[in-house]
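User: UMF1 family MFS transporter. Structure?
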Amino acid sequence: MTATPGFADLTPLARAREQKAWYWYDWANSAYVTTIGTVLFAPYLISVAERAACGFVTDEDKGLMCTDNLHVLGLGISPGSLVFYVVTIATIVSALILPVVGAAADRSAKKKSIMAGFAWAGSLAAALMFFVTGTDWQLGVLLLFVANICLGSSLVVYDAILCEIALPDERDRVSSRGWALGYLGGGLLLAVNLAVVTLHDSLGLGTGMAVRLSMLSAAAWWAIFTIIPYRGIHNREPLAVEREPGGLVRQSFGQLWATLKDMRNYPMTLTFLLAYLFYNDGIQTVIVSASTYGDKQLGFDTSVLIATILLVQFVAFFGALLFGRLAATRGSRQVILGGLAMWMVVVVVAYFMPEKNVVLFLALAVGIGLVLGGTQALSRSFFSQLIPRGREAEYFSLYQACERGTSWLGTLVFGVVHQLTHSYRPAIVALVVFFAVGMALLARVDPRRGIEEAGNTAPQVV
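Assistant: Predicted structure:
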């Protein structure tokens, strides 16, 4: 859209309205990520699995060590490692599914409909988690798998839309505000769920029912607030898409194959993806395992864990905005490198954390919050600068393969180390390796060269 002589250019206002609508999907899906993915469902599913494996029947059994295994396809699976293996498998499957979703989205003029469709399917799977009770861990595994795949698929398209609604100089700011709003929304709902779980007796609810109702509220939140970006974002015709024979599915596979062969022409983009694979696996494993670590290793009850994650959410709101401001003057890559150094300090401190020391646990939560939103928001905006036009969703599908809730190598290592040692302490400190490798690879990325290779316009501060 161009301005007509004699009339004001309203394009920036229209773009700003779309950006505000776009922010709301971070607000919507963060309810699932925080209440279900980060806080409640992992310990809840582990308890269900322990009940099935060891015959626990009362809440007092929660503090006992379960050494029996579940038996799946002839393999012995530790109940405490079950969630991490499920996330691992979901990500391996997503590595096959998400690139096809991205290639199809790049060829579609209905990106917002694809995004919303996956969001509503994922929220339905999350809502059905209400029915995971007793020893029915198999249903919980299935629903967690489906919800994670749908979340990743919706985020592929959501992140690609960032390239359509924000200019290069706007993306750090827009991405940071989206992440910040997401942490604020997830935190507000988590505050309500904190009250429900903490006051369950006075509400006439058992602990299990309070947790299940909280998960149901997160599913409803995800579904309802997705309506705002669905109505506020405009669909656009695809750009610079190469012609492939056949229908949409065949065309999508053809474009995906062509892109994979062509990636060697974008070495900086590929190097960043490898860096992100490692350091984001570390971040995601900390997020997924935080409540389990606090529950099973440090001995905190559910109300303390929810309060701690709630603190992380609100600190992360300010952390994301702070990192966005720093990137405006120092460049996003440099700020991300500083954030990774802070992450390494966080996991080392977690290893030495004494049991049931609430003050130190809350201090650690503040440290996590400061770097959590900022590193993720700037990673998204930085990667958007390195993507060739017309392939945004496809490249973001590769990005999402190691994005929140779908990391695989970190959760695999975490689960295996726990199974071998029967302790979460060595599992958490092992994540230092992921941050160190990611930091070393990111240091090799030349931002200006990568932007030029992708054929994009560089922002004023790189």
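The domain at 18-57+73-236+261-453 is CATH 1.20.1250.20 (Growth Hormone; Chain: A;). The longest strand covers residues 70-72.
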